[in-house]
Amino acid sequence: MYAPEYPIRTERLLLRPLTLDDAAPMLVYKSDADAVRYVPYGQLSLSDIEERIQTRWSTTRFEKQDDAVCLGIEERETGRLVGDVVLFWRSERDREGEVGYILDPAQSGKGYATEAVAALLELGFEGLGLHRIAARIDERNTSSARVVDRLGFRQEARLVESSWFKEEWTTLLIYGLLDREWRAGRAAGVGVHPS
Length: 195
Description:
A hairpin with a 3-residue loop joins β1 and β2 (13-17). The protein has one domain: Gcn5-related N-acetyltransferase (GNAT) (Aminopeptidase, 3-Layer(aba) Sandwich). 26% of the residues lie in helices and 33% in strands. It is globular. It is built from five helices and eight strands. It starts with 7 loop residues before the first strand and ends in an 8-residue tail after the last helix. With 195 residues, it is α+β, with helices and mostly antiparallel strands. An eight-stranded mixed sheet has the order 1-2-3-4-5-6-8-7, sandwiched between helices.
C-alpha cells in the first residue's frame, strides 16, 4: 500500500484530494463539450460530479492494482481549482501506471498541466515505485501531447482508428516514460518538479 501525503506542492500548485466543494468549479469544465472532448466521459452535470467525488474520485491511496487517485489542481496563490489529474496503477507485476489530466480551458497555456503531471510522475516513480508510466492521447489532442513531450515521454505507438470513441473512430497515440528516463531527465532539468 502507498498513501501519499497531501497536499502535494509544486511551485504554483497544490494537488489534493477532491471534496464536494470542488463540484461547482469542476462543473465549469466538465460540462463543457470542448473540454471533455478527449476524456473517457461526456459532459457531466453537477449531480454526476458530486456522485463521482463521493465514489470513484474519492480514493486517496494505492492499495492494489487498478486503483486510481484523482486529485484537484489548485492554484497556491488564489486557492482556485483549475483542473484535475489522475494516476492509475495499471499493473503491479509490470510496475506500470498511466496519467490523465484535464484543465479548465480558461487556465490553459499557463503550464499548469505540465507542472501537475510532473508531480504525478514523482508520485508514481518515487512513491509507488513504478517502472513505466504511460499516457494514451487522442491524436487530435495536440495540447495534451505537448504536455507529455515537455516531460520527456516518447511516442511508442500510433494506433490508427483503433477506438470507437464518442461515436467516431479515433487514432490513439501511446506515450511512455521509464523510471530511469525520468531520473535522467530530472538530473538534466527536463520538466517541472515539485518544490
